[in-house]
TrEMBL record:
Pfam families: TPR_1, TPR_16, TPR_6. This is Uncharacterized protein. PROSITE patterns: TPR. SUPFAM superfamilies: TPR-like. It comes from marine sediment metagenome. Keywords: Repeat, TPR repeat.
């Protein structure tokens, strides 16, 4: 309870004041920092942990204090400072039990700063030093893949997403890894592999918020491969089911394109005319 933490805080403060030269001071400060944290005073907690790292770097739990300093900036979403403090933890306490946490959050911090190369490096270090059965490996492979994707390293990203699909248990990680795999193949213009990934995504995640986009992208990949009948089926699905008009109008135009390429110009004309009639707000599609 709050009263117990306040009482404990007072005890440790009295100890620090009464025995300023005691070798128990860093331990007392550590407890004070934890008490402040439990009482919701993050700034005081941060100040105490900073004192430990600055004045008692040889203390056996100084790495914990450094981790708390980094956590302070992560919580404040000050990712520039968080990345710096995490690097201090990694460099100054290479045997710390918080090393994997440091690499995980360093990767996250660099990603939020759009420093995708550094994020990639941090996530790769997590994989390098973590146990093969670490439950976070699946998620980290996904985030590693995201860092690679942002650098347009699509082949490497596919490999990382594939690892995530093998190891992750979380449904959202599996969902996004598979969808991002399809986007990688799309960017590589490998329409057959993109189609396979999208078909698997649609079959596996029917309730996903991305399923309409997946149908549209699958239709596009089929269209590019001259599979107009199958493409038309997926374009039609989008028109009938998408809650986003921006997707539906593109799909409606796609239906017209399918008939046009099959040289059924009457049906193509009918489908094209639906665009300005049903979606008048999208003037760019009237052409």
């Amino acid at each position: 309870t709050q009263e117990k933490y306040e009482e404990a805080l007072g005890t440790f403060q009295a100890l620090a004041e009464k025995y300023p030269g005691s070798n128990l001071i860093p331990a007392a400060l550590l407890r004070m920092g934890e008490c402040y944290e439990q009482l919701g005073d993050d700034d005081e907690s941060f100040s105490v942990f900073r004192t430990i790292v600055r004045d008692f770097a040889g203390f056996e739990r100084a790495d914990f204090a450094q981790w708390k300093i980094a956590s302070y900036f992560i919580k404040k979403e000050d990712y520039t400072q968080a990345a710096l403090e995490l690097e201090n933890l990694i460099s100054n306490f290479p045997r710390s039990s918080y090393l994997l946490d440091a690499y995980y959050w360093q990767g996250w911090s660099f990603y939020k700063l759009d420093n995708f190369l550094q994020a990639e490096a941090a996530y790769s270090k997590f994989i390098q030093f973590s146990r093969s059965d670490d439950p976070l490996r699946g998620e980290v492979y996904y985030r590693w893949g995201e860092s690679l994707f942002k650098q347009r390293k699509f082949k490497e990203a596919i490999e990382s997403y594939d690892k995530a699909l093998t190891l992750a248990k979380e449904k959202d990680i599996l969902e996004y890894s598979l969808y991002q795999t399809a986007l990688c193949w799309e960017n590589l213009q490998n329409w057959e592999e993109a189609g396979k990934a999208l078909q698997e995504f649609i079959s596996s995640f029917r309730a996903s918020s991305l399923v309409a986009e997946a149908h549209l992208k699958l239709a596009n990949s089929l269209f590019i491969r001259d599979k107009f009948f199958q493409a038309r089926e997926h374009y039609s699905w989008v028109v009938q089911n998408s809650e986003k008009d921006a997707l539906a109008v593109e799909a409606q135009f796609g239906i017209g394109n399918c008939w046009f390429n099959e040289k059924d110009y009457d049906k193509a004309l009918v489908e094209y005319l639906r665009v300005p009639l049903v979606y008048p707000q999208y003037k760019e599609w009237r052409i």
